[in-house]
Design a protein that fits this description.
It contains no helices and 11 strands. The protein is an all-beta fold and about 110 residues long. The strands form 2 sheets. Strands 2, 4, 5, 6, 9, 10 and 11 form a 7-stranded mixed β-sheet that branches. The chain has a 4-stranded antiparallel β-sheet with strand order 1-3-8-7, with no helix packed on it. It starts with a strand and ends with a strand.
């Protein structure tokens, strides 16, 4: 069992920045990849970014490339999503996932 808790969401104006955190506890976290997903109202949950266990490899959805950066601190069992140059279309609930486990999500709202 892995427990995931996302935090760092909020309301920000277009062009602003937020940093999301995903804190893990329970089963081994530091040796597993972690994904950040988002779900906008009325839409499916989609993958935004993924990071391997070491942090050496990352991948991003085309819609966020160059604006979002995923990183991790395995000593703190935490994965981060730095979001810059935010757009209204980034508005969604953001979730982290590892080994099939989900957090409760954190709301990000970007106003125009």
């Amino acid at each position: 069992q892995v427990q995931l808790v996302e935090s760092g969401g909020g309301l920000v104006q277009a062009g602003g920045s937020l940093r999301l955190s995903c804190a893990a506890s329970g089963r081994t976290f530091s040796s597993q990849p972690v994904g950040w997903y988002r779900q906008a109202p009325g839409k499916e949950r989609v993958l935004v970014a993924v990071i391997d266990w070491s942090g050496a490899w990352t991948n991003y959805a085309d819609s966020v490339k160059g604006r979002f950066t995923v990183s991790r601190d395995n000593a703190k069992n935490t994965v981060y999503l730095q979001m810059n140059a935010l757009k209204p279309e980034d508005t969604a609930i953001y979730y982290c996932n590892t080994q099939g486990f989900w957090g409760q999500g954190t709301q990000v709202t970007v106003s125009s």
